[in-house]
Design brief:
It contains seven helices and no strands. By secondary structure, it is mostly helical. The chain has a single domain, classed as de novo design (two linked rop proteins) (Up-down Bundle). Helix 1 packs antiparallel against helix 2, helix 1 packs antiparallel against helix 5 and helix 1 crosses helix 6. The radius of gyration is 24 Å and the shape is rod-shaped.
Amino acid sequence: MSLTLIIVLVVVLVIGLYAGGIYNNLVRLKHQVAKARSNIDVMLKQRHDELPSLVAVCREYMSYEQETLERVVEARSAVSTARERGDVRGLGQAEERLRAGLDRLFALAEHYPELKANASFQQLSQRISYLEDSIADRRELYNDSVNVNTMRIEQLPDLLIARLFGFKPFELLAFAEARQAVDVRRLFGH
């Protein structure tokens, strides 16, 4: 074997190992984004399960606020549909509507002292506040993962491997209207 052939084989081996390392990192980033997305889904599902109870408790006291309650129910359904479809843009829009509906619902609850004193309402509002905080935190982690993935597939030499194997950027999860979670504790003095 000639020295030239050995050098060529070593160079090809080093390039192959380097390309394999890049590929493996891109796969890891893709799975981090999927995991972050799944973590958001868990919190959205938990909140989805809590909202009917909150609406039921509010209905007992807020007989004149049916339109607000219906908006929350409709937005809840839209969030669920977008989440199940994996529609990130639709999820962001539905989340905006749901958060606006919850803001309105909790603001209106201020006018119903019996509702505010109800133990179920207090427990549910605290639970939803916790879930809102968790969703915001997990959305931030998801968006960070998406940004890292996007930067890597747009930079050389990762760009070459990403294009070769079809790695694509993911869409950020943005809530245009409500950048922070509903703070139920602040609304109700807890």
